[in-house]
Amino acid sequence: MTSQTLDQWNAHGSLAQRAADIFTDTQNPQLQTRADRMRSCLRSLKVYTDGHFWPAYACADPICPCCQGRRARVTGKYLNGLRNLLAANDGQQLVSACFTVRNIPPQYLRAEVIDITTAFNSGFLRSLKYRLAASPSYVRKLELTRAADGTAHPHIHALFALPEGTTDNLSLSQMWQDAGKLGYTPDVYWHVIPESAPIAEVTRELRYVLKQPLQITHAMLNDPAFLLAAASSLSGIRTTSAGGAFRQFAEQRRSEPFADSAISGVRLEWTGNEYWPFRGGRFQLRQARVLNYSEVLLETMLRSQPWNKKCPSFNRGHSRGISGWADSS
Known about the structure:
Blueprint: H1 6-25, H2 29-43, E1 44-48, E2 53-55, H3 71-80, H4 82-88, E3 92-100, H5 109-132, E4 137-146, E5 152-163, H6 172-180, E6 188-193, H7 199-209, H8 218-221, H9 224-233, E7 240-243, H10 245-248, E8 263-270, E9 275-279, E10 282-283, H11 288-291, H12 295-304, H13 307-310, H14 320-327
Antiparallel strand pairs: 1-2, 1-8, 3-5, 3-6, 4-5, 4-7, 8-9, 9-10
């Protein structure tokens, strides 16, 4: 995950708070529980000494705008093994594809999500395996978006490692139509990543394929019926899967973003519309607004305040770090 400014985190927090309010208003116990977890996620940010931010209590809800669910952990293991995958599969080409279906009303989204994930896993991959005479190497991600007219647009992003020239003899659109038993010719967008492409470009493409299944937008928040239908349709659905070389070379390491960076003694608290540095029951350094939490400000805070030396380090899964920051004097 790339570095984000405090303004971007304020935007994430605002989206998460509004989404949690919508979930609470439904009086649905399951959605209310998710709302509580989202509020816990946006409540506090850890600050790393290199300037990164991350929720102190990540909720892992797949649609949370703050922690983005398990995306960091899921994406990380494939990114970690990408170099080994490319080295071991020399002579194969990487193909990025997007499999779409027609837009549908939100109330039918749950059934459509089940249909297209089944069609890809059981239909398309089986057909591809038959044509290749071998199990395909792939990683795929389900994504839901909202069209301008309020309809839902479910689709699947995938990255394949295929023998060179495979796409010349395949009709991906026809294979997808047959797999989904669709009564129309669907759009399948795909492109081959050049073998000479730098690792940074391949990494960027993999990050794009593995993006969050539902990125909450202001348009969705203004259409609560769509947001509730989308959130419910993803419940219990495995949005990511992989096979072949992508699964073989996936490396599960420390799941927390920036895990190799040191955590400073600075904590940011959500005030209702933005984050502010917080210590001992008081908000500190209001001038952070104009400096946008730059590296200079971080250095000033760490050098001028002795709290970072007194507070316990924050370890993953442990809540004592937050209380340490708040209680240190």
